[in-house]
Amino acid sequence: MRKTIISLCILALAGASAYAQGAYEALLFGENNYLGTARSAAMGNAFTALGGDLGSVGINPAGSAVNGYSQVTFTPGLSIYGSSTSYDGAGVNRDSRVRGSFPNVGAMLNFNTHRTSGLKRVSFGFVMNATSIYTRDFTGMGSTDRSSYMGYLADYATRYNIPASELNGNISNMQYMSDWPAGLGYQSGMVNEATGIAGPPYLSPVQDNIGGTYPMRGAIDQTYGIFDKGRKFDMVFNLGFDISDVLFFGANLGIIGLNLTRNEYLRETAVNPADFPVLTEGLPDQFQGMKFSYDYRASGAGIYGKFGLIVRPFDGLRIGAAIQTPTATDIRERRWMDASVTFRDADGKASSPDYDYEYRLRTPARYNFGIAYTIGSAGLISLDYELTNFGKSRYRELHSNDNSGWTDANSDIQKALYTAHYIRVGAEFKPIANFALRAGYNLAMTPQVSTYGFGGFMAGYAQDRAKTNIVSFGLGYSSNSSFFCDFALRCKINPEEFYYPYESYASAVSPEFSVRSRLWDALLTIGFRF
Fold first, then answer.
1. Is 491 in contact with 5 (CB distance < 8 Å)?
2. Is there a contact between 325 and 364 (Cβ–Cβ < 8 Å)?
């Protein structure tokens, strides 16, 4: 099986841009993972050629004009995330999280012109559909005597010749944000000046200076984890037209909203504190434990247009297509870091200032194509194909026309990202009147970013094409009056991911955390037609 590699490092490489955005966010904030109503989710959101469901309006605006009635829907949901994490291929730690959601709400009004041909119906409405659920929660743990994050910080400060006066100064005055962890390490006691001994200017409390290799003096326990929470949703104002029940076309004005909260941390604890006596007089004795954490908050809003059509050349067959304009999303980010360390007779703490920044992310056009066939009143089958070239994503300044500061980040996007392909298949079968059985499958083939940077939000380079599989099924009930109710259960099977909490340094190798995860979504739609 081909591996997906994601290196989300707490520590950025020196020489990085003052900003920490890159290919990772361009894909994270630009990609859609449609939820919608329970019916559309159960059928894999293969609705480009079908329409008729409020979950489909964001995929193809023409879908609002297919049905000759008005409707309103409410869809509460429940998301269950589960992960298993191994440390250097040994041991497995399991985590899970349950969270409520509200992936769909909408209303569509359909007006009949009472004409027998030409413009027969006009639809107008508002729909809000979730397009991504940002959920991740994993913790990996194990023991090593090969490397330490503190050793990495000391090596970093040594390699880039950062003077002690700068490490001990105001963190916000450091030239690069990528230097901040080394400064926090120095101020908290994770990095010490190696005075009075031959060797590098900086060492960590767990390193020795024997033979010029500065190895670990004993074993430590390491724990690494990431917790993500957030969502992306589209608020769509829709207008649709039915021409002679043969051609349906529509347009959307879409407004994107997103929010993401992330906490990423690394904890190291001495297996035997007596293995770490003080090397330099005057420094704390016997390291016991440390924690370095990185927090990130993002919120944003964007706008786009989308246009689509559905053609019914003869009864049973439908062909659909839609195009979405590039989306301009204004994003505000806030980041900060905390470091703490404990010795036998002393403690040390240091925190960075909050770093706030606003920018604009322009994501590329999106194209949808679909074909569907209905078998009378017995059922239907539908196939969708969607593509987006994320390599055309670009960062821009929000408050000026000088975008020179984004040259490197935009160049990284061109190298790391390319066209993403999405295939969606859905089917519906009605064994008896008023009841329906549904199933769907999604295959997403997206560019995968290998990220080397603090907090995992730094540009990297493509390693492989990640394949994400989603399987779904559901049930539906439609009364003879106006009420209908649908249920869906879907499972998103993420590709295996590999995380390295810091860059390998000197002869020391960073531990590898392997994560397998799945996301289950349960949705219940309650609706009324009128």
1. no
2. no
Quickly count: other Cβ atoms within 10 Å of residue 154's Cβ: 30
One-letter amino acid of 453: G
Helices (H), 31-123: 38-42
How far is it, in rounded angstroms, from Cα 346 to Cα 464? 46
Domain 23-139+228-529 listed as CATH 1.10.600.10: no
Cα dist. 90→86, 93, 268, 513 in Å?
6, 10, 18, 10
CB atoms within 10 A of CB 435: 12
Determine contact, residues 235/255, Cβ cutoff 8 Å: yes
> For the CA atoms of the chain, what is the radius of gyration?
27
Q: Report the alpha-carbon distance of residue 237 to residue 253 in Å, rounded.
A: 5
Angle between helices 180-188 and 149-159 (to 10 degrees): 120
Alpha-helical runs (H) found in 288-330: none
3-state secondary structure of 23: helix
Residue 61 has pLDDT above 90, yes or no: yes
Q: Could you write out the DSSP letters of every residue in 441-482?
A: EEEEEEEEEEE-SBTT-S-EEEEEEEEEEEEEEEEEEE-SSS
Decide which of 98 and 462 is more confident.
Answer: 98
The answer to whether the beta carbons of residues 452 and 458 sit under 8 Å apart is: yes
User: What residues contact residue 211 under an 8 Å CB cut-off, 6+ apart?
Assistant: none
452 and 416 Cβ atoms separated by less than 8 Å: no
315: CB partners within 8 A, 6+ apart: none
Decide if 288 contacts 270 (C-beta within 8 A).
Answer: yes
Both structure tokens of 113: 């012109």
- Do you know the residue count of the chain? 530
Mean pLDDT, rounded, of the chain:
90
Q: pLDDT, tens digit, for every residue of 162-186? A: 999 999 999 989 988 889 999 999 9
Q: How many CB atoms lie within 10 A of CB 118?
A: 9
User: 3-class DSSP state for residue 337?
Assistant: strand
Q: Look up tokens 């569509």; give the residue.
A: 108
Check whether 6 has a pLDDT greater than 60: no
Structure tokens at 493: 């099977």
Residue type, 272: N
- Compute how many other C-beta atoms are within 10 angstroms of the C-beta atom of residue 529: 17
Q: Distance between CA atoms of 427 and 46, rounded to whole angstroms?
A: 9
How far is residue 361's CA from residue 24's CA, in Å, rounded to a whole number? 12
Q: In whole angstroms, what is the distance from residue 101 CA to residue 231 CA?
A: 9
